[in-house]
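Operator note (shift B, R.M.): manual run for DUF3396 domain-containing protein requested after the automated queue skipped it. Running by hand, logging everything below so the morning shift can see what happened. Input copied straight from the record, untouched. If output looks odd, do not overwrite the archive copy; leave it for review.
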Amino acid sequence: MCRERAATPFDGLRAAPPSEHSRWLAEPDEPALRELLHARYAGSYSYRFLHEPEGASRLWRAGALLSLGEFDARGTLLWHTGLWCKPGRDSLDSGLSVALPCRRTAMDRAEHERLWSHLLERLQARVGFLHQQTSTLHLMAQRYASRFMRAVPVGLIVDYTEGETLVGVEGSGLPMQALAMTTVLAPLPPRRRFLPAGPWGEWLASILAASGLPGTVELTPLERRPRTGGLVPRPLDWNESLRLERRELVGSAGEAQWATALPSSRARVDLVHLSMGEPQLVAEATPVLLAAGYLPTGLRPRLDAADDIVFQHLPAPERAREAVGRARLDGEAARALWSGWVERCARTS
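Run finished. Output pasted below as returned.
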């Protein structure tokens, strides 16, 4: 018997199947999802609890995950994608996208287009963005995200996952690089964005231009003098399975104790967000982040606040450059973003 599921703001999405051969998964579908994950990852998926009974069901009941599946005429789950939900956020995260190796397709291109047109239209009333970290192991994941989900490249994450083996995918088993992509759902007003002057600011400005986000960009000279009021990192998100942490820099009264050493993170993937809305913040924080081994790796738009620059802790730029060099990329925008980062990372090395 299925247990009672918590009500969420996204329940209206589940009122009807989005297309002919797709439907939302529920607790009786959990064995099929485990079989699909095993067929693709052979037990190596980073979210290890999803390989266990009740792993997905707990998320579904809590409203933390919405699971959408493609089924053939015999009821076999051929493809799955998930929407990760966190209360109070202006976005959802798309992930857990898995297809059977040598997949038997039930949905053609037109049905995938109908599915995402239906879904994105309904998400618009609830959130401003759909974010994803798209695999660079193969091109089809990126092509699907841009073609059907209307996602645009906004950055990268170095060594996003490690220890995953994808059956039938060349190059898996090594740490996976991710192309950060975002679908803008809500209309955004033009914004004035401040970026650090120099090569990294120019790279970030090129991402903004390619993304189509409205507004203007100003390159702000970096300030190397200590400030009288400090800034401290505040937790934004912690992903236990990936050991990935996001923190944002916020104002703090008193002396700037962080000016020589940013407090370390427990994370394997350590990301720091810096608001583009305050030129003084960008001018003062950027040199400190760079000196502490953090490199800009992209941006993240926000709905009701200034957009963020995303930095990743990469104290060995040469090793990071070698890692991202293994990526396969689809589309001119993704390749330009990637090559621009590698070129600037080489200067940092």
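Quick read of the result: The radius of gyration is 21 Å. The longest helix spans residues 332-348.
Leaving this for review. - R.M.
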